Amino acid sequence: MKIAIIGGTGPQGCGLALRFAKAGIGVVLGSRDLARAVQISEELNEKIHPLIPISGASNSEAAQSAQRLVLLAVPFAGHEAALIELKPHLAGKILIDLVVPLAPGNPGLCAMPKEGSATEAAQAILGEQARVVGALHNVSAHALNQLEQPINCDVLVAGSDQTAKEEVISLIETIGVCAFDAGPLQSARCIEAITPILIRLNRSKKVPFRHAGIRIWPGDNSLS
User: Fold this and answer.
1) Does the keyword Oxidoreductase apply (predicted)?
2) 118-126 and 188-203 helices, crossing angle to 10°
3) 52, 109, 175, 212: most buried, per Cβ within 10 A?
4) What are the pLDDT digits (tens) for 68-89?
C-alpha cells in the first residue's frame, strides 16, 4: 500500500509518515515546495530506515501516486486552495481530512466554515468523485513524533461512506491506535471542536501535564 500525506513536511505530517513507514506502509510526502519535500523525506528515512523509504513530491504528484488513501494535513488557511489543486487527482480515492478550522490568532477556538466543519467543506469542494473521511484531528504532533512511546489517545472517525470509513479505521489501526466509527460526516463538527479544547488544556497551568488526548473508555471500567 502507498499513501500520500499532503502537508507532510509539517510536524503532524512528519509524525504520521514515520509511524506509517515503521508499520511497513509506503508514504509519499506532498508539499508545495518539492525540494523541501525531498529533503524532509530523506531526513525521516535517516531516523528509522524503513523497509519502504519515504519519498517526497509535489502535492499533485503525491496525490496521484497514492493508491487509494490521501491524508490532508495543511493549516486551515490553505485548506480550500489545497483541495482545489488536488481535486483532479482524487477521483475514486479516499481523502482523510485531518484539518481543524482553528480561529485566526486564537487556537483555543474553532471558526467553522459555512458547511459546518472542515471535513464537510472538503466533501463539498470535491463533490462525488472522492469520498471524504475525517480522522486524526485530536492527535498531537508531539505524540506522533515520540516514536519510542505509543500514541496517547484514541481516534474518532467520521464519514458518510461506510466502506471508506472502515478502510480508514484499518489504516489507523496499523500504527497501534484504537479508532472508532463516530458516525456520518456531520459528526466531524463535534470531533474538530475537541482540538481547541485540548489546546486550552495543554496551555493551562492548572493541568499537570501536556499533550493531552482523548480516550474512549467503558463507563464501568470493565472491558468485558
Assistant:
1) yes
2) 140
3) 175
4) 999 999 999 999 999 999 999 9
pTM given for the model: 0.94
* Strand 106-110 to 102-103 pairing: antiparallel
Residue 159 counted as domain residue: yes
pLDDT in tens, 84-125: 999 999 999 999 999 999 999 999 999 999 999 999 999 999
CATH code, domain carrying 35: 3.40.50.720
Q: Are 14 and 40 in contact (CB under 8 A)?
A: yes
Q: Is residue 222 part of a domain?
A: no
Considering the domain boundaries, does residue 216 fall inside one? no
User: Distance between CA 116 and CA 160 in Å, rounded?
Assistant: 15
Q: Domain limits at 87?
A: 2-203
